[in-house]
Amino acid sequence: MADKAVAYLDQAVAPRLRATLPAALAAVLLFVLKLGWAALFAVLILGAIIVTRLIWSDTWTVARYDALVLFALGTQIVFIRTGLETWEEARVIAIFHVTGTAMEIFKLSQGSWDYPEQGILELGGVPLFSGFMYASVGSFIARMIRLFHVKFAPYPPFWMTVVLGIAIYGNFYTHHYTYDIRLILFAATLILFWRTRVWFYPGPFPAWVPLPVAALLSAGLLWIAENIGTFTQTWTYATQGDLGLVDIGKFGSWYLLLYVAFVTVTLVMRDALKPLPMRPAPRQDPREIY
């Protein structure tokens, strides 16, 4: 499905950037703009968290957490109605929403983190907007695949990736009662995906990055977003240090959780997975890029 905003960036914004900036800087800036558009759902949710923290009053009729739920739900509806997300993407995002909420309920019961405010729209003490935060990760991956014509090659046997995703998700629960196997899981992600390249089109020519590197960079961004959440007191960790930063161990948790999100998305978007190495050709016609 064509995306008019990305087409506008390519056909209107890109020529202006190239005319006023060095070629390399123009290319990087254009890529960042497109990346931000792919992450639009996450950006809007994070923006709502910041804005509501700044303006909300305890005397208002609607609780801040409930307002965040309504905002996230409304945003999701708008995305689907306007075609920013397809129904195929929405289904897989819904799966990640459910699995994320289930993990939030369990982790809250274990005292891993806390939600200091109160609301009506919650389940097991977890405000329902938290599921949309997990969904925003799935949304970003799905939109990246579609908007950048992403291909993953060479992709390991699909069943192995599903087993890895299940093992990672399960360890978030079982490590409270038995051994924490995250070091084994870290190694498994590298062994399974070390040859896999993420091919994408930031412009007419293809580029690639190793999948584990892409996951590592994305985990860094999510760790920053996590800190924004705690700075705004939307959720809190007892283990935060003197600087108020989220424990660096959460960086590793996000790295692993990204694989759960990725595998969940590929349950539906299987066309992006290529079992053999590939070298995509340039897309000379701008109308074919997005």
Blueprint of the fold:
Elements: H1 4-20, H2 23-38, H3 40-55, H4 64-82, H5 87-109, E1 122-123, E2 126-127, H6 129-147, E3 151-153, H7 158-174, H8 182-193, E4 197-200, E5 207-210, H9 211-231, H10 249-266
Antiparallel strand pairs: 1-2, 3-4, 4-5
Task: Please provide a written account of the structure.
This protein is mainly α. The chain has two domains: 1-38, no CATH class; 39-288, no CATH class. Helices cover 61% and strands 5% of the residues. The strands form two sheets. The chain has a three-stranded antiparallel β-sheet. The chain has a two-stranded antiparallel ribbon with strand order 1-2. Strand 4 (197-200) and strand 5 form a beta hairpin. Helix 7 (158-174) runs antiparallel to helix 8 and helix 7 (158-174) crosses helix 10 (249-266).
Count of distinct strands: 5
Annotation field: number of helices = 10
User: What structural class should be given to the helix and strand makeup?
Assistant: mainly alpha
Q: Mind telling me the C-alpha Rg?
A: 20 Å
Mean residue pLDDT: 87
Number of structurally distinct domains:
2
Query: How many angstroms separate the termini?
Result: 8 Å
Strand order of the largest sheet: 3-4-5
State the major sheet. Answer: 3 strands, antiparallel
The low-confidence runs, each spanning 5 or more residues with pLDDT under 50, are 286-290
User: What proportion strand?
Assistant: 5-15%
Order of helices and strands: HHHHHEEHEHHEEHH
The coarse silhouette is globular
Helix content: 55-70%
